[in-house]
Amino acid sequence: MSVITIYNRLPVLRAERGLSRQDLARALGINYQTVGYLERGEYNPSLELAFRISEYFELPIEAIFSPRPFKPLSEEVYARS
Amino acid sequence: MFNRKPPVKDECDIPNDPYQYTPAWLYSFVLGRLVISLSMSSSHARTYRPRVTLHNRLAILRLEHGMSRQDLARELEISQQTVIALEQGEYAPSLNLALRIGQLFALPIEQIFFLSNRDHLMRKTVEGECHEPV
Question: Which of A4, A47, A60 sits opposite B98 (nearest CB)?
Fold first, then answer.
């Protein structure tokens, strides 16, 4: 199977909550460098890790990870249609 | 070593018990090796056994949609063996595959895959199916 990048909203979510990579890494029980890899989309998480991330942010997995690029969150929320 | 004849002191001794004079250190050595090998093999098995913390409703969903394993395999562009392994919970899909499965059944991933034990699964299933609080 070809390598497919999965886009994610991790940097936005982390910044919104004022968390450092260290904080998030500690909460998820992973290395802070892994958080960096995840945020840049260089590393696709396992489904289990995705579940843990979604549980931590209390958001559905689809809100955090998507095979298509996300629109900016502000645009989605405040866009004048 | 095992065939060493015990020196018969008197009539009360059991003359032909070869194990009577097997040294204690040999017993402890053999027993120790056995314990070590058993513990090694069990820890080896524990390391390589797939962690089954992920349960899913794939089989039920597939049947609800009237699909065969072959249909599902074709839709997801995976092999039929992978479908079987997924349904039996022997194989945790990648996030990408999980997202595609969610898209196919038009369900959030949390409604298809569940972490941890069976109780968790049952609770989630019930929560997912009845929309009003009981």
Answer: A47
Model's pTM, two decimal places? 0.63
Number of other residues whose CB lies within 10 A of the CB of residue B47:
7
For residue A7, the chain B residues in CB contact (below 8 A) are: none
Cβ proximity of A61 and B103 under 8 Å: no
Q: Do A47 and B54 touch (CB under 8 A)?
A: yes
What one-letter code names the amino acid at B97? L
Q: How many angstroms separate the CA atoms of B11 and B96, rounded? A: 80
Q: What is the domain class of B54-129 according to CATH?
A: mainly alpha
How many angstroms away from the CA of A16 is the closest CA of chain B?
A: 24
What is the ipTM, given to two decimal places? Answer: 0.80
pLDDT (tens digit per residue) in A37-77: 999 988 889 998 999 999 999 999 999 999 888 888 888 88
Domains of chain A from N-terminus onward: 7-78 (1.10.260.40)
